[in-house]
Amino acid sequence: MKKKYKISVLVITCNHSKYIAKALNSILEQKGDFELELLVGVDASIDDTAEQVRELEESNSNMRVFYHDDNVGMVSNINFIRREATGDFLAILEGDDFWNDQFKLKEQLSFLLENDDYSCICSKFNIVDIDERPLKEVKILRYFEGDVYAFEDYQRGYLPSHTSTLFYRNYFLDNKELLDKFEKCDSIGDKKIAMLLSYLGKIKILDELLTSYRYVTSNSQNWTARTKEKNMCLHYLDWIFECERLLSEVSGDEIIEKDNRLFVCYFALVKIIKGPSASNIRVFLTVINKSNTSLFKLFKYVTIKIISKFIRKNKRG
What we know:
- The protein has 317 residues and is α/β, with parallel strands linked by helices.
- Helices cover 45% and strands 19% of the residues.
- The protein is built from twelve helices and nine strands.
- Helix 1 links the parallel strand 1 (6-13) and strand 2.
- Helix 10 (258-274) packs antiparallel against helix 11 (278-291) and helix 10 packs across helix 12 (295-316).
- The protein is globular and about 60 Å long.
- The termini are far apart.
């Protein structure tokens, strides 16, 4: 008898009253020959997010919802529901984003079942505003532009795609030691999952817009809103150190992300150029010192960046 695979979709939400119904319905409307487990963590919302979730929960037996009376934060929320997941595969969606295609999970599941050397499959994505109008000029993180993402691409500072597009094998299901190590890694979720999955296998990137990331700058619980105007370079560097530690624990070898460290130094320099200030200069000098990056290496890196940008501009012209 053919096995029916279970897919656990993890949703974290807080004060997403305007968006949560669309997010959850885009999951519940998925079609395919699999068992769907929808896990939702409602983090002490002060609007009617919880009421909307509870209404959907009453009519969908495949939903399991966890209502937090006190605000636990994004990290604790996702860690909690990840530990509750019993699926063979995992996908994640935040409460203000949504999926565009009813066959997203079916297509991604089929690919991983046919390709054992891949740990994950993802796709391109839309960026929209709070009213779902497309945003073309918004840049958020450095995403890889090819169709197969490998560990070397992670080491060069790229992410495979937005988290809402990821679909991956649940390596944590029978390996609680790995889950413990993953949760103790105090790095941004996008980065550490990209690191772990690319270390464990290849990542396929579909040239389809399967999801929509809502670029919100007004909700205090939204990552973009909380970091938009800040110089995050020291945080980025600390996240790199945490990922280095996690990868060293998993692999048994000491691994240093030299290219990632170098890119943070470059980014800190760009911050000074765009906004000269004593604060940005202090951050730059601290990043250079903590990352053990020489100014010569940074100068070489910047030179290559400028030449590459000039070549690309001439090709387009």
